[in-house]
Design brief:
This protein is an alpha+beta fold. The chain contains 30 helices and 21 strands. Helix 4 runs parallel beside helix 11 and helix 4 crosses helix 13. The relative contact order is 0.09. One of its GO terms (biological process) is proteolysis.
C-alpha cells in the first residue's frame, strides 16, 4: 500500500510498546528487503512460501472458503418488494461483474497501485514504507490488498474465537509474517480478479456498511454497478479510516480531501485522465443514505402490519433443521448466512386483509380480528393481518397491547394460545363421520337439548349430572337433519350426536391430522389423556388460530392433501442455489372423496347449493353475494357466551379464516358486535385473492358417500316439550345407535 499523505488529525500519540513493536517490525521488513535484493522478487516469494508450507493446502479453511457474515434479505412474493433483512453485519456479496469498473480501479489506486504486478507482497512498497517510517516516525506495514484481505477474513471469521480474531490485527512480527505467507499462497492459487472481488466484498466502508454492495446502498442508494466516478472515489477513500472519513458519521470535509487523493491516484495509474479527475472533484458530495431494515420491528411504518407475517417467518425458520442443528445455529444462519428469501406474502391480499380487519375494529379498540389466507395444495401463507401495528412503540396508558404489540395474534405462540372458533370445528366431526362410512344423508333428529353420556364438569349446559348442549335457535335447527342442512344451519345437537356415533377421540385426531395445534396446556392434556370423553370438542371449545384454521380448511379444498403452513416461495443460499427447505411439505391425510363430500356440505353455510342440492339454509349466506357466485364453501362459528365470532371459507385456490376476539379479555362478548362483519371481511379477502383468476369449481363426491342407501325415516316418540328431561326421548336417543 502506498504511504498516504498526511491528513488533518492523522498524527496520534503512540505508547512505548507500540513504538518498540514498530521498530521490530521494520527490522523484519528490512530483512525481507535485503533478501529481495539478493533474489528476484517472484523467486524470493516462491522460496518464502515453499519454506513454510504448501501454498493452498497450508491455508486455513476460512481463507480458502471464507464464511463472511452476510445479511439475509427477505422479499415479498414478487421477489422485488423488500420486507426486511436479518443481519449482525450489513454485508451482501456480489460478483466482480456487478461492480462498476471505476470502483475496481478506484480501490486499486487508493490502496495498492501495484496490485496487478506483485505476487501478494509488494517489495517496492516495503522499501518505500521503510523510508517513510524512518523519516516521519510512522508505522506503515506496506500491506497489499491481498494482505488486507487476509487480515479482514481472519479478524471477522465467526468460526474463530475472540482471541483468534483479535490476534489477526495485533502489531507483531509473527502476525505480519503469517499475513505475508498467507497472501503469497493466495496469489499462487486465485487470480487477481477473484482476490479483488473478495476484498471489495469484505472491506469495511464505515457507517455500518461492510462490502461494496452495502456501502453503495448506505451512502448513495444505488447498486455497485451504478456507481459514478465521484462516488467510487469517495467509497474507495473510506477504507483506510472508515470511521474518520465517513461523510455520514465522520468528517465530511476529510472525506472530500480523501476523495481528491483517490482521483489523483487514479490519474497516476492511468485509470482516468486529469480532466476526468477534475470534473469528478468539482462535483458536490450528494448523499442519498439508505439504512437497511434489520428484523421484524424495523419494517417501515407504512407496512407495520407485515411484522406479524415476518414474525411467523422467523419462527418457521428457527424450527427448520436444514438451517442448523439447534435454534441458536439457525438464528446465526438467518443473521449471518446471506440467504435470499422470497416469501409467500402477497402485498395485495395482505392489504385487503388489513383493510377488512380495520373495517370491523379500529386499531385502538381492545377487540381484534386476526385474518390469515392460505393457498390450498402448497400451504403457502398469502396474508397475516390484524388491526394492530407490529411494533415495540409505547402504547397510551391503560392500553397494554394496542395499537402496538409484538404478540403473535394471527398464528399463535408465546403468550397467545389462540381463540375458541366455535362451530367451525364441526368440520372435523363431519370428516370423521364420513371417513367411518356415514354418508352425508345420515339423519338424526335434533332436539333443543341433547342429554349426553359426558360429565357436565365445568359447563353450564347441564341435564342432571350430564353435559347437555342445546341448539342456539330451536325454531330453525330442531328436527330431522342430515349433514348438509345440519352443517348449513349449524345444529349443535346433531353434531354432538354425530360425534357420539364416531367417538370424540376420532374427531380430535381428525383435527390434529389437519394441523390444529393445541397450544394451551389444558387443551393439550385433554387431547392426550381424555379425548374419548371430550364431547364438547365438536363445538369448538379448544383454542385455535386463524392460520391453523385456514390451513385445516385448505386441506379440504385440496381434496385431502394437508400442507403445513409455509411462509416462503423460495430460499436461496449466497451462491443463488435454491434450497429444498423452501418447498411445500404436504401429505395426504384424507381420501379425496371424503374431502369432496365435506366440501359439498360446506357449500350450505355460505348460501350455495351443493352438487346434490340438499341445502336448506346457511348461517353465512351473505358470503355468496359478496363473491358473486364464485364456487365457495365454508363455516361460521360462535363460541360460548358469544366470546368470539369466526368464519372460514375457501375456493379451490385460497382459504381464508378470521376470528374476532378480545385477546386480553375472553369474557368480552365480541361475537355479537362482529356477527356480520367477520363474514364480510373474510369473503372480501377471498374476492381480492381470486381477482383475475378463472373460476375453479369443486368436484362432486360419489353418490355412495353422499346418499348411502337412502333409508326410510323413522319418527321419534311423542315429546312432552321438555326435551332435556324427557326420559322416553332420551331412551330413544340411546337406542338409536345406528344412523341411516
Amino acid at each position: 500500500m502506498l504511504a498516504k499523505p498526511r491528513q488533518p488529525g492523522e498524527m496520534r500519540s503512540r505508547s512505548l510498546v507500540g513504538r518498540l513493536a514498530a521498530v521490530v517490525l521494520c527490522g523484519v521488513l528490512a530483512g525481507l528487503v535485503l533478501a529481495a535484493a539478493a533474489f528476484p522478487g517472484n523467486l524470493f516469494l516462491g522460496l518464502t512460501v515453499k519454506a513454510t508450507s504448501d501454498a493452498w493446502g497450508g491455508l486455513p479453511q476460512e481463507l480458502r472458503a471464507p464464511a463472511t457474515a452476510q445479511r439475509t434479505a427477505v422479499y415479498a412474493r414478487d421477489g422485488r418488494t423488500l420486507i426486511t433483512n436479518f443481519y449482525d453485519v450489513d454485508r451482501r456479496d456480489v460478483p466482480l461483474t456487478e461492480i462498476a469498473p471505476v470502483m475496481r480501479q478506484a480501490i486499486v489506486a487508493a490502496e495498492d497501485r501495484r496490485f496487478y504486478s506483485h505476487g501478494g507482497v509488494d517489495l517496492r512498497g516495503v522499501a518505500r514504507a521503510l523510508v517513510t517510517n524512518a523519516k516521519e516516525g510512522t508505522t506503515q506495514g506496506a500491506s497489499t490488498l491481498t494482505m488486507q484481505y487476509v487480515r479482514n477474513v481472519l479478524k471477522s471469521d465467526p468460526e474463530r474465537t475472540a482471541e483468534e480474531r483479535q490476534s489477526a490485527t495485533e502489531v507483531s512480527v509473527g502476525r505480519k509474517l503469517q499475513e505475508i505467507r498467507y497472501a503469497a499462497a493466495l496469489e499462487q492459487t486465485l487470480d487477481k480478479d477473484e482476490i479483488l472481488a473478495r476484498y471489495l466484498n469484505i472491506a469495511y466502508f464505515g457507517s455500518g456498511a461492510y462490502g461494496i454492495a452495502a456501502a453503495s446502498e448506505r451512502y448513495f442508494s444505488v447498486t455497485p454497478a451504478e456507481l459514478t466516478l465521484a462516488q467510487a472515489a469517495l467509497l474507495a477513500g473510506l477504507v483506510q479510516s472508515p470511521n474518520e472519513y465517513s461523510p455520514i458519521d465522520g468528517d465530511r470535509d476529510a472525506a472530500l480531501v480523501r476523495r481528491s487523493y483517490v482521483l489523483d491516484s487514479m490519474v497516476v495509474t492511468g485509470a482516468i485522465t486529469t480532466a476526468q479527475a477534475d470534473r469528478a472533484r468539482a462535483e458536490d458530495l450528494t448523499l442519498d443514505p439508505t439504512e437497511q431494515p434489520n428484523g421484524c420491528t424495523a419494517i417501515p411504518g407504512s407496512h407495520a402490519d407485515w411484522g406479524f407475517f415476518c414474525d411467523y417467518l422467523r419462527s418457521w425458520w428457527l424450527a427448520q433443521p436444514a438451517f442448523g442443528g439447534t435454534v441458536a445455529e439457525r438464528e446465526q444462519a438467518l443473521r449471518r448466512g446471506g440467504y435470499t428469501v422470497v416469501t409467500s406474502l402477497d402485498p395485495t391480499v395482505q392489504a385487503s386483509a388489513l383493510r377488512q380487519s380495520l373495517a370491523v375494529f379500529d386499531s385502538d379498540e381492545p377487540r381484534a380480528l386476526p385474518i390469515a389466507a392460505v393457498e390450498p395444495g402448497t400451504g403457502r401463507v398469502l396474508a397475516m393481518a390484524v388491526n394492530r401495528n407490529y411494533s415495540l412503540a409505547a402504547n397510551p396508558a391503560g392500553q397494554d397491547n394496542r395499537p402496538n404489540t409484538v404478540n403473535q395474534l394471527v398464528a399463535g405462540g408465546g403468550a397467545i394460545d389462540g381463540y375458541q372458533a366455535g362451530s367451525t370445528f364441526k368440520l372435523f366431526t363431519m370428516l370423521a363421520a364420513l371417513e367411518s362410512g356415514l354418508p352425508l344423508d345420515t339423519e338424526y333428529y335434533a332436539p333443543t337439548r341433547l342429554p349426553t353420556r359426558y360429565p357436565a364438569e365445568g359447563s353450564t349446559a347441564v341435564c342432571g349430572d350430564r353435559w347437555c348442549p342445546a341448539n342456539a335457535d330451536p325454531a330453525s335447527m330442531n328436527g330431522y337433519r342430515t349433514m348438509w342442512d345440519a352443517f348449513g344451519r349449524s345444529v349443535n345437537t346433531y353434531f354432538v350426536r354425530l360425534s357420539e356415533q364416531v367417538g370424540p377421540a376420532k374427531v380430535v385426531e381428525m383435527a390434529q391430522r389437519l394441523g390444529i395445534t393445541f397450544r394451551s396446556d389444558l387443551d393439550e392434556n385433554l387431547a392426550r389423556t381424555d379425548a374419548a370423553d371430550w364431547g364438547a370438542f365438536t363445538l369448538g371449545v379448544s383454542a385455535t388460530t386463524p392460520l391453523d384454521l385456514a390451513a385445516a380448511y385448505a386441506t379440504v379444498a385440496a381434496e385431502g392433501t394437508y400442507c403445513a403452513p409455509l411462509p416462503v416461495l423460495s430460499v436461496a443460499g449466497p451462491d443463488g442455489t435454491k434450497l429444498p427447505a423452501g418447498d411445500p411439505s404436504c401429505r395426504r391425510v384424507l381420501d379425496a372423496d371424503v374431502a369432496r363430500a365435506a366440501t359439498d356440505a360446506a357449500r350450505c353455510p355460505v348460501g350455495q347449493d351443493p352438487a346434490y342440492g340438499r341445502c336448506t339454509g346457511g348461517t353465512a349466506a351473505a358470503a355468496d353475494r359478496i363473491v358473486d357466485g364464485r364456487p365457495l364453501a365454508g363455516k361460521s362459528g360462535t363460541s360460548d357466551q358469544d366470546a368470539t365470532k369466526s368464519f372460514v371459507a375457501y375456493t379451490p385456490q385460497v382459504a381464508v379464516a378470521g376470528i374476532a376476539a378480545n385477546p386480553d379479555d375472553p369474557t368480552d362478548r365480541v361475537g355479537i358486535a362482529a356477527q356480520s362483519g367477520v363474514v364480510e371481511a373474510v369473503a372480501r379477502v377471498i374476492v381480492t385473492a381470486t381477482e383475475g383468476r378463472p373460476e375453479a369449481d369443486f368436484t362432486p363426491p360419489s353418490r355412495d358417500l353422499a346418499l348411502g342407501d337412502e333409508p326410510e325415516r323413522r319418527a321419534p316418540p311423542t315429546r312432552s316439550g321438555d326435551d332435556e328431561n324427557d326420559l322416553d326421548l332420551r331412551e330413544w336417543f340411546d337406542r338409536l345407535r345406528t344412523p341411516r
